[in-house]
Amino acid sequence: MEIIPIPTDTYTVGFIGAGKMAESIVRGVVSSGVLPPSRIYTAHSNPARRAAFESLSVTLLPSNDDVVRQSNVVVFSVKPQVVKDAVLKLRPLLTENKLLVSVAAGLKLKDLQEWAGHDRFIRVMPNTPAAVGQAASVMSLGGAATEEDGNLIAKLFGSVGKIWKADEKYFDAVTGLSGSGPAYVYLAIEALADGGVAAGLPRDLAFSLASQTVLGAASMVTQTGKHPGQLKDDVTSPGGTTISGVHELEKGGFRGTLMNAVVAAAKRSKELS
């Protein structure tokens, strides 16, 4: 069957599942102007979730069947354990003229495509900073997804952060790094702030300094293009304060512990999938 291109100027997007991740994506898409809210659809019985999407001027429809009928692009954003049921129930409406997308962790393209009955599917792994427009997302294209399909999804998810394309075989490692990684960074921020308090800082000031320092350091890496090791060397003067702190981190196995955390989370992702 010939794949009909998605109309780039008039396409519509439907979300099956109106949870926090879907809300974050919609908020980014609308605020960036990538797509007007009038061309975004979802359905949900929970009044609070409906109100969240109504506040973005998204069209609320009576059922998921209606959402699929109205949409060129269908994004499955329900919890991983209910994706199979959701896809199978909607399968008669999921024609090859519709581009299907899953943001559910751990579900492989081969299964998604089998449930849908065709392989015009794209799997996307975003992370929670999508809520503030700073997601790190990775996508992998199914067999019938075209380059144009990929570009369209890259533009949508690019509105809530940065997105890369990669082979699906890397997705467990992606989960271990960027999927779980925000939690590691939150722990680091909390620990830095606790250190500040231990050194005599007021709690509020310590948290503010810790979070801004992490944000600033990450921005230095992304904006200068320098290797993190070089940036580290730039602030470690001979016999100075920073090298003393770095020495303590090395004695505690800081880098090895972070590496182990990523590997452990990737291994768990593989087990779950």
Automatic annotation (TrEMBL):
One of its GO terms (biological process) is L-proline biosynthetic process. Pathway: Amino-acid biosynthesis; L-proline biosynthesis; L-proline from L-glutamate 5-semialdehyde: step 1/1. PROSITE patterns: P5CR (PS00521). It catalyses: L-proline + NADP(+) = (S)-1-pyrroline-5-carboxylate + NADPH + 2 H(+); L-proline + NAD(+) = (S)-1-pyrroline-5-carboxylate + NADH + 2 H(+). Its EC number is 1.5.1.2. This is Pyrroline-5-carboxylate reductase. Residues 12-106 form the Pyrroline-5-carboxylate reductase catalytic N-terminal domain. Belongs to the pyrroline-5-carboxylate reductase family. Pfam families: F420_oxidored, P5CR_dimer. SUPFAM superfamilies: 6-phosphogluconate dehydrogenase C-terminal domain-like (SSF48179), NAD(P)-binding Rossmann-fold domains (SSF51735). Transmembrane segments: none annotated. It comes from the Eukaryota. It is found in: Cytoplasm. NADP(+) binds at I16, G17, A18, G19, K20, M21. GO terms for cellular component: cytoplasm. Residues 168-272 form the Pyrroline-5-carboxylate reductase dimerisation domain. Its main location: cytoplasm.
